[in-house]
Amino acid sequence: RYRDSARHFAQLTCLYSESTLFGPDNVTTLDMRDWEAVCLQQAGDYRGAIEIYERLVPDATAALGESHSVTRNAWRRWATALAEEGRYAEAALLYEQLTRTLTENAEFGPEHSATMKARRWQQLCMEAQDAGWTDSPAQFLAGKMAEMRPRRRAR
Fold it and tell me: Fewer CB atoms < 10 Å away: N or C end of the chain?
């Protein structure tokens, strides 16, 4: 199902890129490319998603800027796809860059939830790398995220 959706988003991306109304650098076209990668990622095709993100993030940054939501979302999802493929060091580096960008942005800053989330994911990826985790990267990250959740007090 996700592969079918990815194929549809790829078709839309081609139409939008060639359109005189949209073009390749239009926010809608860039968003379609992001959703194509999301669908591939959801289907477990991390490599395919990563290939799209490797081109999408620089294109979105050039067209929309680092702090635009399409750029930020694609950047974060790229790092997540790398982590899901077990490429923790690369994912940590992307999360570090994202954290720095968000910290330096007046709209976000160091205490914004998006900045803190990127920082925490960077730390998780570094922990996974240091632990030599190779089995089920998603399981490692899910376990670490569960450890971070606040505990509910008994009534």
Answer: C
**Nearest Cα to Cα of residue 118 among 149, 91, 150:** 91
Q: How far apart are CA 17 and CA 144, in angstroms?
A: 40
Q: For residues 51 and 47, what is the distance between their CA atoms, to the nearest angstrom?
A: 6
Answer for the pair 144, 137: CB distance below 8 angstroms, yes or no. Answer: no
Both tokens of 8, joined, read: 């549809």
Q: In the Cβ-directed half-sphere of 53, how many Cα atoms lie within 13 Å?
A: 27
pLDDT tens digits, one per residue of 84-113:
888 999 999 999 999 999 999 888 999 998
Q: Which residue in this structure is represented by tokens 């800027």?
A: 65
DSSP 14-55: HHHHH-SSS-TTSHHHHHHHHHHHHHHHHTT-HHHHHHHHHH
